[in-house]
Amino acid sequence: WAEAMKDLHEEITDKGQTVNADKVLQFLRSCFESWGKKGKLNPVIAALSAETGLFSRSEGSNWNKAKPQKTRELEDKEIKRILKSIIKSLDKYKQLNDRLPQQSKRMRTLTMLLFKIFTGGRFDWIQTLRWEQLDHKNWVEVITKGRDFNKIIQEDLIKLVKRYVEEDDKNKYIFWSNEALEGYIVDYDEAWKTTLTQAKVPYTKPKQI
User: Fold this and answer.
1) pLDDT, position 152
2) Is residue 82 a contact partner of residue 74, using CB atoms and an 8 Å limit?
3) 62-81: b or e for each residue (b if 16 or more CB lie within 10 Å)?
4) Is-contact 156 163, C-beta < 8 A?
5) Residues 6+ apart with CB under 8 A from 103
6) Tens digits of residue pLDDT in 141-192
7) ∠12-13-19 over CA atoms, to 5°?
8) Burial (CB count <10 Å: 0-12, 13-18, 19+), residue 6
9) DSSP string, 36-94
10) What per-residue confidence (pLDDT) applies to 56?
11) CA distances from 19 to 15, 69, 90, 104, 186 (A)
12) Fewer Cβ neighbours under 10 Å: the N or C end of the chain?
């Protein structure tokens, strides 16, 4: 079971579907969590245990005793290197006369990461920003953590966004994506990892910005 589950996860991940791979494992676990035999470990759950590295990161899980790994916080000097790397990449793409769709999407993704760095905001409201919300004079209402919040977006940041992202009448979101069901960019991990490599910064989750 352990090898089968591990092979399944690797096969899906190799196709660039890490999130889907994790969801498949979660679904398999939910199917077998009602084992019901006292004193006996469900063989499927055992196969998905910490021993294989395919375990839940939730501390409250009754079938996982592994502690979630703590994420390292970025230092100021590292953030400066990351910003320099992102701007360099954006300027490189901006100089291209005929950008491919994926290159334009990479520009939107990197600009979204810049927005995240400068505001410290959560991805849930940054990803869903619309052009009419880029207002530095008035409060902007956004939804984060399922609640309404008012934000002020700095004028310099608005200029930065408009410098690298072209407004598209066909898409209501600034950081739009035709590849996502939601309509906005959700797959920013690869761009983040590449940026950290270029900036020579050890990996940490983008949510730690």
Assistant:
1) 82
2) yes
3) ebbeeeeeeeeebeeebeeb
4) no
5) 93, 96
6) 888 878 888 888 889 999 999 999 998 888 889 999 988 888 999 999 999 9
7) 95
8) middle
9) --TT---HHHHHTSTTTT-----TT-TT--PPPPPPPPPPHHHHHHHHHHHHHHHHHHH
10) 46
11) 11, 18, 26, 23, 10
12) N
Integer CA distances (angstroms), 192 to 37, 110, 144, 158, 198, in order:
44, 8, 22, 21, 10
Q: Are 184 and 175 in contact (CB under 8 A)?
A: yes
Which residues does 153 contact at the CB level (< 8 Å), separation at least 6?
Answer: 119, 133, 134, 135, 136, 140
Q: Are 132 and 185 within 8 A, CB to CB?
A: no
- Total residues found in the chain within this entry: 209
Burial (CB count within 10 angstroms: exposed 0-12, middle 13-18, buried 19+), residue 82: buried
Half-sphere exposure of 101 (CA within 13 A, CB side): 4
How many whole angstroms separate alpha carbon 55 and alpha carbon 106? 31
CA-closest candidate to residue 24, choices 11, 41, 42, 34: 11
What CA–CA distance (Å, rounded) separates 46 from 60?
A: 17
Tell me the three state secondary structure of residue 149: strand
pTM: 0.66
